[in-house]
Design brief:
This protein has a five-stranded antiparallel β-sheet with strand order 2-1-5-4-3, with helices on both faces. A five-stranded mixed β-sheet has the order 7-9-10-12-11. Strands 6-8 form a two-stranded antiparallel ribbon. Helix 5 packs antiparallel against helix 6 (about 180-210) and helix 9 packs antiparallel against helix 11. The protein has eleven helices and twelve strands. A hairpin with a 4-residue loop joins strand 4 (about 100-110) and strand 5. It is elongated and about 105 Å long. The protein has helices at about 1-25, 45-50, 55, 70-80, 125-175, 180-210, 220-230, 235-240, 255-270, 310, 330-340; strands at about 30-35, 40, 85-95, 100-110, 115-120, 220, 245, 250-255, 280-290, 290-300, 345-350, 355-365. The protein folds into three domains: about 1-120, Beta-Lactamase, CATH 3.30.450; about 130-210, Helix Hairpins (Orthogonal Bundle); about 220-365, 2-Layer Sandwich (Heat Shock Protein 90), CATH 3.30.565.10. About 50% of the residues lie in helices and about 20% in strands. It is an alpha+beta fold.
Length: about 375
């Protein structure tokens, strides 16, 4: 008898502890049945939803669910009836004032008794923040699209007046070549040079608007790509006595047109901005990582002071990089955009008059 009394006291204590946990949990805890009714509810249900407990117990809980969430909730109930546990299922419950709470449910069924033991958490704050982020993302995408469209139109509009300047300048140069002095000829040549620069920048802007759209992913043998580039640049390479070497390069997935432009930009930079009386030398190598290919373009050119590293890949480069590098023609920002389109990063390590090493990665997981 004494043993039975002790066991009874222990059971009573355990029940009291379970009830305290049930009633004081910050979450909403409950026991329901497969017929669709709540049987036992923690006080938080009434506190958060605003109903009397009897109102919640006397109606099927589906009646409190937002209309848009009814079908998914019924599907989840069917799973519970089959003994499948619910984890992180989210739906909306109507409050007494007509507003809704977002609840995240984890439920375990007992098929032998038809009982469902569930815990719900109010995630309304989280869902609100997710919605704010979604809206801001949509606004950002819209703004970027509008900006790209503006740049595209502006670049197109630039072409006609620039072409007119070119024609008028050439006409002036031809018609009055015998009557104008050397100073006037030099001014005309400066106009032509500026016109050429505007054309280059306009073409670069147009290309920028096309990058990061839907890329065409193919298998690219970088060894063949490099051979194609060096063949096309043969005259430039021979004239500058440039030496280009490489290790065995990988086969990657990507947009061949964009990867080719990336290679060309780094090669042309190394050749064009070489040190005086030193033949350009370029060495290309790679390192295979778990999820990406690391490319290394090393040159012995004029180099870049480290204070310009951050601005090198910006569209509006605020200053000349190195004494000889002219204002940006968007080559580096295009390179950055191409790399980012291929889920990679690009950076540089360099010192003035000691050459540069450009690093960039290309993800192994590129899809159209």
């Amino acid at each position: 008898m004494k043993l039975e009394t002790e066991l009874s006291k222990k059971e009573s204590l355990n029940l009291s502890q379970y009830k305290f946990f049930f009633d004081h949990s910050n979450d909403l805890t409950c026991i329901a049945n497969t017929e669709g009714f709540f049987e036992i509810l923690s006080p938080n249900f009434s506190k958060l939803l605003g109903y009397q407990e009897t109102d919640l117990l006397n109606k099927k809980f589906i009646e409190f669910v937002h209309l848009e969430d009814v079908d998914s909730t019924l599907m989840e109930m069917d799973k519970l009836k089959k003994g499948i546990t619910t984890i992180n299922f989210i739906n909306r419950y109507r409050k007494q004032d007509g507003s809704y709470l977002w609840l995240e449910w984890s439920s375990s069924p007992d098929t032998s008794t038809g009982k469902i033991y569930a815990i719900a958490r109010d995630v309304s704050g989280r869902k609100k923040n997710e919605e704010i982020i979604r809206q801001k993302s949509e606004e950002l995408v819209k703004t970027n699209n509008e900006l790209e469209h503006f740049v595209y139109i502006l670049s197109h509009e630039f072409q006609n007046p620039v072409q007119d300047i070119s024609e008028y300048t050439n006409e002036l140069k031809i018609k009055f070549s015998d009557t104008i002095n050397d100073e006037a000829k030099a001014i005309i040549q400066k106009i032509i040079d500026k016109k050429n620069k505007i054309e280059t920048m306009t073409k670069s802007l147009l290309f920028l608007t096309r990058i990061s759209k839907k890329i065409i992913v193919t298998s690219i043998d970088c060894n063949l790509l490099l051979k194609e580039i060096t063949t096309e640049l043969k005259d430039f390479i021979v004239a500058t006595q440039t030496e280009i070497t490489s290790t065995l390069l990988p086969i990657i997935n990507g947009d061949e047109k964009e990867i080719k432009m990336l290679f060309e930009t780094l090669i042309k930079y190394a050749i064009k901005f070489n040190r005086k009386n030193i033949n350009p030398v370029i060495h290309i190598s790679t390192e295979e990582k778990e999820n990406e290919h690391l490319f290394i373009f090393k040159n012995n050119g004029i180099g870049i002071d480290n204070k310009y590293f951050d601005s090198l890949f910006l569209v509006f480069n605020p200053t000349n990089i190195g004494a000889e590098l002219p204002e940006s023609d968007f080559g580096f920002i295009i390179s950055k955009k191409i790399v980012e389109t291929h889920k990679g990063k690009i950076w540089v390590d360099s010192k003035s008059n000691e050459g540069s090493i450009f690093y960039f990665t290309i993800s192994k997981n590129i899809v159209d």
